[in-house]
């Protein structure tokens, strides 16, 4: 499906901007919206044309389902049945950077392409005040993948969205830079057992503390997040990881106090939360220099696990 060129508007996150964004969604058009994790490419999850436009604008393969964003817990529970462990996580972390995958209820009303034909749906209540205000104003479920062309670096500012999707979407609601900077953690369920399907903006440790149990990492392939491709978040340049001294010509991205001579730093103090918030912006900036990229080691604890997951995919051989 080739869409005609659209003049992509920038909307301010005020009453007029929110009203315009909601009007675009009602008309089946696409609006990039700020969330606390990354910008999302929002469309009406009940409207098959809107959902088809999301896949077309991103160049996203049809087998990769979308996350449905909702204003409140009741709206989420109307679409899917959360097991006990899911209710526990929702109570602790919603609204926030957590997505829960659970069996769809009959009569859910979502366009079939949202779930890519699966019998489960991914649900999230974002915490960003602008996203919450828009969801309340729109009053329905909003499908929103990250607002980047498929496979490329995720967007954490309105400028990143414009660089990737200008001309393909109706508008960008500008809510400033995203505070968390990594996509949501995704948790699914194998019966009563909670399974971490994607490391993300809430650490495994925090999720396990809330559950009072360990998270499984896979359910023997029974449930997966189909979007977890080896190459993803990819800059145009080659990426080398765990680099403690860069080669001539490389752009070096440091972490912590011991990276003298680095071109960028994810966090001078070695703070994983600061590094998460800066990761995609630094990758966008480094890539703009047009040279190979080298990245310092990042410890695997807390949000470091999700940072390393994104870095490994950024460095993976391209399909
Ligand atoms: O933080 C986020 O999650 C951001 C913001 C915009 O909310 N969204 C985001 O969406 O990262 P996206 O489309 O880039 O990633 C969604 C992931 C994919 O890996 C997809 O395969 C998985 O969620 N997913 C969606 N529905 C699923 C389902 N029913 N079962 C398993 N995985 C699912
Ligand atoms: Mg994405």
Alpha-beta content class: alpha/beta
- Ligands bound, unique: threonylcarbamoyladenylate, magnesium ion
Mean pLDDT: 95
Described by the principal axes of the CA atoms, the overall outline is globular
Number of domain modules = 2
For the sheet with most strands, the description reads: 10 strands, mixed
The overall strand count is 14
Radius of gyration over alpha carbons? 19 Å
| CATH fold-level name of the largest domain | DHBP synthase
Q: What is the ordering of alpha helices and beta strands?
A: EHEEHEHHEEHEHEEEHEEEHEH
Q: Please state how the strands of the largest beta sheet are arranged side by side.
A: 1-8-2-3-7-4-6-5-9-10
Roughly what percent helix?
25-40%
The top-level CATH class of the largest domain is: Alpha Beta
CATH architecture of the largest domain: Alpha-Beta Complex
Q: Strand share of the residues? A: 15-25%
Low-confidence stretches: none
What is the CATH homologous superfamily assignment of the largest domain? DHBP synthase
Instruction: Please work out how many helical segments DSSP would assign.
Output: 9
Termini separation: 22 Å
Q: Which structural traits does this protein have?
A:
17% strand, alpha/beta, DHBP synthase, 319 residues, ten-stranded mixed sheet, four-stranded parallel sheet, binds threonylcarbamoyladenylate
3D architecture notes:
With 319 residues, this protein is an alpha/beta fold. It folds into 2 domains: 9-217, DHBP synthase, CATH 3.90.870; 239-315, no CATH class. The chain has 9 helices and 14 strands. It has helices at 15-26, 48-58, 73-79, 84-93, 129-138, 158-165, 204-211, 272-288, 304-315; strands at residues 9-11, 31-33, 40-44, 67-69, 98-103, 120-124, 142-143, 171-173, 185-190, 193-198, 239-240, 251-254, 264-265, 293-295. The protein has a 10-stranded mixed sheet, sandwiched between helices. A hairpin with a 6-residue loop joins strand 2 (31-33) and strand 3. Helix 1 (15-26) crosses helix 5 (129-138). The longest helix has 17 residues, at 272-288. The chain is globular and about 60 Å long. The two termini are 22 Å apart. 51% of the residues are buried. The mean pLDDT is 95. The structure holds threonylcarbamoyladenylate (TXA) and magnesium ion. Magnesium ion binds at residues 145-146, 154.
């Amino acid at each position: 499906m080739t869409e005609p060129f659209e003049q992509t508007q920038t909307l301010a996150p005020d009453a007029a901007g929110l009203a315009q964004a909601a009007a675009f969604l009602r008309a089946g058009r696409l609006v990039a919206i700020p969330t606390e994790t990354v910008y999302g490419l929002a469309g009406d999850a009940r409207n098959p044309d809107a959902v088809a436009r999301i896949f077309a604008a991103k160049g996203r393969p049809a087998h990769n389902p979308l996350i449905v964003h909702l204003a409140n817990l009741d709206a989420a529970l109307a679409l899917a049945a959360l097991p006990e462990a899911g209710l526990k996580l929702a109570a602790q972390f919603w609204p926030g950077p957590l997505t829960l995958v659970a069996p769809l209820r009959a009569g859910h009303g979502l366009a079939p392409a949202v779930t890519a034909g699966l019998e489960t749906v991914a649900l999230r209540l974002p915490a960003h005040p602008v996203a919450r205000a828009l969801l309340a104003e729109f009053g329905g479920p909003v499908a929103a993948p990250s607002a980047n062309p498929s496979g490329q670096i995720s967007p954490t500012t309105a400028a990143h969205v414009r660089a990737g999707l200008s001309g393909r979407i109706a508008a960008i609601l500008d809510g400033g830079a995203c505070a968390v900077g990594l996509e949501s953690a995704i948790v699914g369920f194998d019966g009563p057992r909670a399974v971490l399907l994607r490391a993300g903006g809430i650490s495994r440790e925090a999720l396990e503390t809330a559950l009072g149990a360990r998270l499984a990492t896979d359910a023997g392939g029974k449930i997966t997040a189909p979007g977890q491709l080896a190459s993803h978040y990819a800059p145009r340049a080659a990426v080398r990881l765990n680099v403690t001294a860069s080669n001539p010509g490389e752009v070096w991205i440091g972490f912590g106090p011991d990276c003298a001579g680095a071109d960028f730093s994810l966090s001078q103090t070695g703070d994983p939360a600061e590094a998460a918030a800066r990761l995609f912006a630094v990758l966008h900036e480094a890539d703009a220099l047009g040279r190979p990229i080298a990245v310092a080691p990042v410890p695997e604890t807390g949000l470091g696990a999700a940072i390393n997951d994104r870095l490994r995919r950024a460095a993976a051989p391209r399909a």
